[in-house]
Specification:
The chain is mostly beta strands and about 190 residues long. It has 1 helix and 10 strands. Strands 1, 2, 3, 4, 5, 6, 7, 8, 9 and 10 form a 10-stranded antiparallel sheet that branches. It starts with a strand and ends with a strand.
């Protein structure tokens, strides 16, 4: 789930100041394929969560005249640049359980083999975002924006707690990340 609020003020006909605030909540649970050795089967379930709060401030440069004033085109190209600042809480939890399989194929849990591993991190991040896109009028005071955010972010771990050292993804501790986020569609109201 992602919620984002945007406010934009046009300083000149083609340059606007843009402020954003976003909340992002992700949850996934995966079951890895069971590992089998002789009559023992080991299963693992991994739960990942991430909650982030971010704010951004930047500028939008857009050729508005053709689409918004002269009405010759349906969409106007734009590019947005923003500074990002935020915090993310992420965690990984792995639950392992071993089972004994008898000759008929029935499995029973082996006592004492249920192992829980977890790690929780609180991180601070800052970064830059470049967003090419298109914008068009929907009539009256409504506009629609389609943007493709490209980000580079710097991460710092503020707090970490863990138990039994879980396996974390390779990107978990990367201090710098670069990537393209999912496209964003904004519905804007001008007043």
């Amino acid at each position: 789930m992602r919620l984002e609020a945007v406010a934009q003020r046009w300083l000149r006909p083609d340059i606007g100041l843009r402020l954003t605030a976003a909340y992002d909540d992700q949850y996934t649970k995966e079951w890895e394929p069971p590992q089998e050795r002789d009559s023992i089967v080991v299963t693992r379930a991994t739960t990942n969560t991430a909650r982030s709060f971010r704010i951004g401030a930047g500028v939008t440069i857009q050729k508005r005249r053709e689409a918004f004033v002269e009405r010759e085109k349906h969409f106007a190209p734009l590019v947005g640049m923003a500074l990002l600042l935020g915090r993310e809480d992420r965690s990984v939890r792995q639950e392992d359980q071993a089972y004994r399989r008898d000759s008929t194929g029935v499995t029973t849990p082996i006592a004492g083999t249920d192992v829980v591993r977890w790690q929780e991190d609180r991180l601070f991040f800052t970064g830059l975002e470049l967003s090419p896109g298109l914008s068009g009028p929907l009539g009256g005071r409504w506009e629609v924006d389609l943007r493709l955010p490209i980000e580079v972010t710097w991460w710092t771990v503020i707090d970490r707690s863990s138990m039994n050292a879980p396996d974390v993804p390779s990107w978990w501790d990367d201090p710098v990340t670069f990537g393209v986020r999912l496209p964003r569609l904004y519905l804007l109201y001008r007043w």
